[in-house]
Amino acid sequence: MGKYDLAMPARHVGQYMQSGDWSDYWRTAISLASEGRILVRGYRIEEIIEDLTSVEAHWLLLKGELPTRQQAEIFDVCLRSGMDQQFISSAASATRFAASASRSPVSAVAAGMLATGVVTGSPRPAMEMLYAVAARAREESLTPAAVAALTVSEYRARRETLPGYGHPTHRGGVEPRAESVRKVVRAKGGWGEHGQLLEAIHGSLEAALGRTVTINLAGMLAAVYCDLDFDPLMAEGVSAIEYGWALVAHAVEEIRDGVPLRIIPDALGATYTGPPERHLPGRHP
Predict the structure, then answer these.
(1) How far apart are CA 201 and CA 198, in angstroms?
(2) pLDDT digits over 60-84, tens only?
(3) How far is the C-alpha of 70 from the C-alpha of 73, rounded, in Å?
(4) What DSSP designation does 86 have?
């Protein structure tokens, strides 16, 4: 089992209905608000606004404690890594379709967020794999090379794709964003156990397939977030929000300079693959 595996919830609505005590039904360790006072993770909001950077404040909000300088710098790299890739992302296309109809950046970005997930680059699947592989290596006293070879063999036996590898556009072995993340994080001394496992699995995968395989941005971020001890659920949400900046840019550009009510005409690839024209039984044209 990997770190942060989802377990059965400790609380459930039945226990509250049975006891009739709802006093802690809604609870949070994130913030406290009362008249004239707001605390976030125990710190006064005034101090956060006046003294912290955006990266430090958001790390505190998510993780509950202030980051070290190294953690803040590496987190900053993650937050600016996605940027944009024209129309490759389905999230960008969904945003622009929605913006062309709604003329609202809020609903358009929401549509793009809904089109964001495992297929479109979430680091969560690769993080879950890396946490599980790291746990297995410790439990079975396996070297990175040995556990990587086993992992690749088992995924291939199940005919499953290893998350974090491959890219539809960057097929030559280099995904520019991913490589820059690795370069900067390594320079800052943050490329740790999970980064090394990512590379070991990459080597085993290329050897098994006999060809070059690209480590994509989701895979690279997965290793970094694991080494930063992030929950995969949290990293998935953060990555969606980080790419949300690009969605805002796409939505505004579409509203200001796009074509209202986007369509997909035949000239742009719309193809009908159904049966030819026909009539209901017993009817005539």
Answers:
(1) 5
(2) 999 999 999 999 999 999 999 988 8
(3) 5
(4) T
What are the φ/ψ torsions at residue 89 (nearest 5 degrees)? -75, 130
pTM: 0.89
235, 222 in Cβ contact below 8 A? yes
For residues 115 and 227, the answer to whether their CB atoms sit within 8 Å is no
- Closest C-alpha to 229, from 197, 193, 196, 200: 193
Structural domains in the chain? 36-67 (no CATH), 72-262 (1.10.230.10)
CA distance 217 to 281: 54
Q: How far apart are CA 210 and CA 233, in angstroms?
A: 33
Spans of the chain below 50 pLDDT: none
- In angstroms, the CA 162 to CA 197 distance is 13
User: What whole-number distance in Å separates Cα of residue 122 and Cα of residue 232?
Assistant: 9
Quick check: helix, strand or coil at residue 40? strand
